[in-house]
Amino acid sequence: MADDLLRLEHVSKSFGALRVTDAVSLDIPKGELHALIGPNGAGKTSLIHQISGWIACDSGRIVFDGEEVTGLKMHARARRGLVRSFQITSILPRFTALENVALAVQSRSGSSLRFFGDASREPKLNGEAMQALRHVGLAEQAHRIAGTLSYGEKRGLELALALALEPKLLLLDEPMAGVGAGDGEALVGVLRDLKAHCTILLIEHDMQAVFALADRISVLVNGAIMVTGKPDNVRADAQVRAAYLGEAA
Amino acid sequence: MQDIAASMPMTQVAPRDRSRLIVPVLLFATLALAPLLGLVGPDRYVLALFTRCVIFAIAALGLDLALGSGGLVSFDHAAFIGIGAYAAGILTASGIDDAFLLLFAALATSGFFALATGAISLKTRGVHFIMITLAFGQMAYFVANSLKAYGGDDGLTLANRSTIFGRDLLADHRVFFYVSLAMLLAVYLFARAVVRSRFGRVLRGAKENETRIAAIGFDPYPFRLVAFVISGMIAGLAGFLLAEQSEFVSPAFMTWQRSGDLIIMVMLGGMASLDGAILGALFVVLTEELLSGFTEHWRVIFGPFLVLVVLFARGGLLGLLTGRRHG
Ligand SMILES: Nc1ncnc2c1ncn2[C@@H]1O[C@H](COP(=O)(O)OP(=O)(O)OP(=O)(O)O)[C@@H](O)[C@H]1O
Ligand SMILES: [Mg+2]
């Protein structure tokens, strides 16, 4: 379809004997919030690694925004608006929170081959970075060294880094994992706002959040997509209940 | 979205910390006054020693850009120094002694060598990077050894120091010292600007977390390569000055131990802090001078000291002095 933002065609990947991604085909239209669920070790993170270009797939095609990106590295895909967050927080621990995000803003605003001028004092970069921090409720922590932030704050920073890139497609790998209930609810709110601005592929174990946010859901088991559909259909699917939701079929 | 950012007060910028100027001002003031020691001691000896300090401080600053900001443990830098020195030596031997020409030749050749070796070395990381730069460094060393026309392993004596607009201003040791010091200041200010620039921020980010830098859309490779070339050219500048000062070049400039000394200067002074690199260079050159007066096995004393600093002072000497831990 022409308005599919992301299209996976028979994407496969093996780690030795383990088939971690098994002929996954998936279309995500513009504007959709698509949730990817599945048991631990199903291969969700590995799939995100391949979509974002962090690891290469063995076979299959990945088409993003009408252009094949299968052979592109992560930085090149990020530049095209295919942006990810990490399940295991990945930040610049010795930079301040603001500088972390300002560097993301810098990546999409003009050349970075500038050798003069204090980057940490560029009002445009800092202004937009501040905005992303405010979005995730971290404005107060802007000048703290990122490594000293609490776990929940680091998760927020991880999200702010992705937001600051103004992505077309956002791949979120368990943004709520390990954050407290209150922060989790706040994050659901943030994601709901985000839906209006960009397309999202969300991995999340919190089923309440998933069913509240997702337009469609795919269930991944042993590297293969078992079913894709509207939340209600997925909830009703007997196979899914047996395989994942932990109920007797 | 944009208008909110624009209307925001500029509170996002942390206040500038003036106290950080104290160390560089003290360092440069001390260096500028160092020749006064010549009033109480052997004048030429003092000048030569501190000129050497200044020259190695330049080289250490150069390495600091690659190592401190870029995380690149390079054993190529003695070769850059040597290439800069040989460029000056060979041109002088062919009768060209214009300082600007020699300087240009030193920068161009060391820069080119850094580009060629960096382009290959930077495809690797970690221990592999160290080994490859070491290999390139040794290659340059053996090439210099085989330059029979230019003295081979004996080295090459320069007939005279270079001239500025045909005048032999640099022949005066005091003038040469202050010219070298001015170059150090220029390199220092340049390196400071680079570290803080957009370019430097990406470079520093890639040292901290390469994955994150790639995820926000930067390929670290070109940034590292440019940093490596700039770093190599600064070492080449130091090589040019070294050749001019001693009016002599030899393959000994290019030994891998010399690269090791530079790494020690940067690490000892405090990584990723330009002030630290200068401090480290002064400390190593002066300590070597002092200890080698007592014993030729001065490294036996210096080695353990180094281990202690690395173990107990993570901010290096600068950290010890200021109570701060730099990057
Ligand atoms: N680099 C690797 N080499 C070998 N095996 C790997 C590698 N990365 C992941 N795996 C394995 O692949 C399987 C899928 O891992 P993955 O992290 O993609 O699962 P996941 O669905 O994200 O799980 P979780 O819900 O726990 O995050 C696991 O069995 C894991 O051990
Ligand atoms: Mg995972």
Q: Explain this structure to me?
A:
The complex is a heterodimer of chains A (249) and B (327). Helix content of chain A is 36%, strand content 25%. By secondary structure, chain A is an alpha/beta fold. Chain A folds into two domains: 172 residues, P-loop containing nucleotide triphosphate hydrolases (Rossmann fold); 71 residues, no CATH class. Chain B is built from 14 helices and two strands. Chain B is globular and about 55 Å long. The longest helix of chain B has 27 residues. Chain B starts with a helix and ends in a 5-residue tail after the last helix. Chains A and B meet through helix 2, helix 3 and helix 4 of A and helix 1, helix 7, helix 8, helix 9 and helix 10 of B. Bound molecules: adenosine-5'-triphosphate and magnesium ion.
Features:
heterodimer; A: 249 residues; alpha/beta; Rossmann fold; 2 domains; 6-stranded mixed β-sheet; 4-stranded antiparallel β-sheet; globular; B: 327 residues; mainly alpha; ABC transporter involved in vitamin B12 uptake, BtuC; two-stranded antiparallel sheet; 14 helices; 70% helix; disordered N terminus; binds adenosine-5'-triphosphate; binds magnesium ion
